[in-house]
Amino acid sequence: MRLVLDSNVVASAILWGGSPRLLLQAARETRIALYTSTPILAELSDILARRKFARKIAASLLTIEQIVDGYMQLAALVRPSALAGIAPDADDDVVIATALAAKADLLVTGYMALLSVGAYLGVRFARVMETIQLIESRKKS
Length: 141
Known about the structure:
By secondary structure, this protein is an alpha/beta fold. Helices cover about 55% and strands about 15% of the residues. It has one domain (about 1-140): Rossmann fold, CATH 3.40.50.1010.
């Protein structure tokens, strides 16, 4: 299964663990393939640099660059084409474009506005828990 995670899902996995971290674990175990793009990585860096996460980052004993590099070891980099007018928030069009460039099965997000799109050109938009359930059901098959 080919997945693109939006930057907030990745940040949540890295900072807090929980369900989103299960997606990173599935990638480490090669049960799924993760894809990302330079714009998503830049947004991830911006999120991790927020003052409210400074203690969490410091406790990891890693720099933001090291954390992002670690994610880049799990996710293949693709180059999205320009896309506009699909997502309710224009900033999310690059996430959709990344999923298209990756030929992803799912774009994983927690954004209600993005989830409201449902699917685009064969890429389905899904929540973290729904995605985990799909991965687990494939594991049992």
